Amino acid sequence: MPLNRKTVTHFLIESMRDKQGHGNLTLLLNDVITACKVISDQVNHGELVGALGSAGSENIQGETQKKLDVLSNDIFLQFNSYGGHLAGMASEEMDDPFPIPEGAPRGKYLLLFDPLDGSSNIDVNVSVGTIFSILKCPEGVEDPEVKDFLQPGTTQVCAGYALYGPSSMLVLTTGNGVNGFTLDQNIGEFILTNPDMKVVEDTREFAINASNSRFWEAPVKRYVDECLAGVEGPRGENFNMRWIASMVAEIHRILIRGGIFLYPMDERLRKQGGKLRLMYEANPMSFILEQAGGVCSTGRERIMDIQPSGLHQRVPCIMGSKNEVERLISYHDE
Ligand code: P6P
User: 97 and 27 share a domain?
Assistant: First the structure.
């Protein structure tokens, strides 16, 4: 490893040095990052450690839990319960907030996470990831309840994801830009490899699950049809499509080469509000993409402005390259 390479811990200490804090966020992130390293190891070993397949249970979303969903959730709880930086945790895999164990020191932050996003891909060896969001616990609240977690995305102090792909990567923002780190398996450290990541404003690549097209609203149908019409159509350009069914992988691709990610409202989803969860998928990914110059909307409002009404609330997601997202928002306005 070239000597000038920086570990994520070194990077965080340096970037937080001029902040008034006492390093608690850095120490909390250190625990979160350790949990991601352990999950990476489990994911990479797959069936060798008997980690694949169904756990034989369902989460609050009514989704069948994979063994790695449950294992990843337990890993997050294990590595974040005793550091003394949290007042509580919430997860896609748990109906209610997780209280910090009796006797363990408490801190001033709330940690929300999707421990293994895209886990339907895990049994077929396609990239999956972890998404997390950090909020401040309201002043004076010792035992946070659901209402204490229900803060709009604009109040996040940190958001990040780990992507378990051909390499394991960590992407983070604390509100001063976005930085990417690659796990050096030889030394077990995330190394700064993608400083100051930016989303290009234009793209000719869209990501959507096209099998849902008959359920889409008119603005989305129009947008996708125009992309498919290519150079002979109103856009006068050919477009490419990708769908990995793993939000972390799609958002990472958009950070690297641009793009627009769509999981829009559709007729099937109207009652439940959308597919993706606001608190630990849409909000953290929006914080990251906006910090990189992207735009993140439901089609009708900025995702991070939404006042949450439920811990597992779902929202429509249209996010990525500024000019394409703003075009689709304009179609919703018409
Ligand atoms: P579909 C994974 O389950 C997830 O929450 C996101 O990571 C992904 O973008 C989406 O759902 C995939 O949904 O309907 O294509 O399986």
Answer: yes
What pLDDT was estimated at residue 83? 95
Higher pLDDT among residues 19 and 255, named by residue: 255
Measured from the CB, is residue 245 less than 6 Å from ligand 1? yes
pLDDT band at 59 (very low <50, low <70, confident <90, very high): confident
- Is 127's C-beta closer than 6 angstroms to any atom of ligand 1? no
Q: How far is CA 330 from CA 150, 200, 220, in A?
A: 29, 19, 11
pTM equals 0.96
What gap in Å lies between CA 57 and CA 267, rounded to an integer? 28
Is 126 in the same domain as 151?
Answer: yes
Across 12-26, 40-54, 169-183, which has the greatest mean pLDDT? 169-183
| CA 141 to chain CA mean position, Å | 26
Q: What is the mean pLDDT of residues 206-218?
A: 97
Residue ranges making up the domain that contains 169: 8-194
DSSP state for residue 216 in the 8-state scheme = B
Ligand 1 pocket, residue 209 CB under 6 Å: yes
pLDDT higher than 90, residue 259: yes
The Cβ of residue 104 has, within 10 Å, a number of other Cβ atoms equal to: 12
pLDDT at 50 over 90: no
Q: What is the CATH number of the domain that holds 103?
A: 3.30.540.10
Q: List the residue whose alpha carbon is closest to atom 1 of ligand 1.
A: 245
2 pLDDT band, cuts 50/70/90, is low
CATH number of the domain that residue 209 is part of: 3.40.190.80
Strand 168-173 with 178-184, pairing? antiparallel
For residue 246, the ligand 1 atom closest to its alpha carbon is 7
* Residue 247 · residue 255 · CB < 8 Å: no
